[in-house]
Request: fold
Amino acid sequence: MTPRRHLASLDLRAVLRPFDELGGRVAISVEDADGRCLAMSAPAVHPEACVSRAAPIRVHDEVAGQVIATGAEEDGPILAAAAGSLAAALAAAVATAADADHGPGGVSAAQLDEELAHGRRLQRSFVSLVPPDVPGYDIAAHYEAAREIGGDFFDLFRLRRRGRPLSLVIADVTGKGIAAALLMAFSRPLLHAAIDHTTTPAGALDRTNTILVGERRTSLFITALCARLDIPTGRLQLANAGHEPPLHIPADGGPASLVLGSGTLLGAFPDIDVPPVEWWLGPGDTALFYTDGVTDAQSPSGERFDEGGLLAAVERARGGSARDLIDGISGALERFVAGAEPADDITMVALRRSPDR
Reply:
């Protein structure tokens, strides 16, 4: 069976069903290589004001089809992310099914490595490291994909409401491979839409969890942290669903501290019980958000980088820009793992308030 036929044989409607819950904000369709629609989610509500972003489903140098995401022009980045992540996940699923048809010895290790490498390249293409412009704040991000297709993702975007607050979400799907990539693929736009349609980060996580519990039948779950920054005051509203706690790095040289307060991870239980947390970034203060790929990184002897290694790296790199902090931690991780490929995706976002703000 060819990759095109394998794509057509997948239960694509089940993959797209969660997008129906976005209230017409984002519509997703999957087409075959000849442009025939194989499956689609509910259509966008305002088709006359919509734009589309497409990503090819490429398997073993053959284009089996494409994923098309449609929505408002202002949602261009999230449309590209949704199309790219779904295309990467579907390509991996089709490649696995096609490879199985060949039987033992039918596919070389080099071919499988190339499929993984292609998936990683796609992931990097839809993880934007260019933060939005936020006057009075310095933002930097770092993303490094593991060898396998993984499930880290993050978003930084200004909300369309009074004051244009900055929203940040950083999340990690438990596990790796095709299933993790698929779960990440539709969870990212789900979270984005939930943040836009709720008044608090805790409400956004609760709404996302309700959809995941109701729609997904999977053993994989998501840790997620959602924050909302009031730009004039530095007030941060935070909600954490089983994710690593962020670090608050004060400008006065005091010790960096973990911002605690967490509920249950997403997709596991109907009630996640996420406590709202509120704190302030004072002038010169920095907030660091990260995934467990940072603290779980291992040395050649099997030692974990852990929170102790992260805090030590922060102490050595603090005092400069957000980029200086990220680069300092990345350098410490690189020296610690001594050239080994990361076992998990590594994602970090640093948010620093200007000293004179």
User: Anything to note?
Assistant: Residues 104-108 have pLDDT under 50 and may be disordered. Residues 76-102 form the longest helix (27 residues). Residues 1-126 form one domain. The first strand starts at residue 26 and ends at 32.
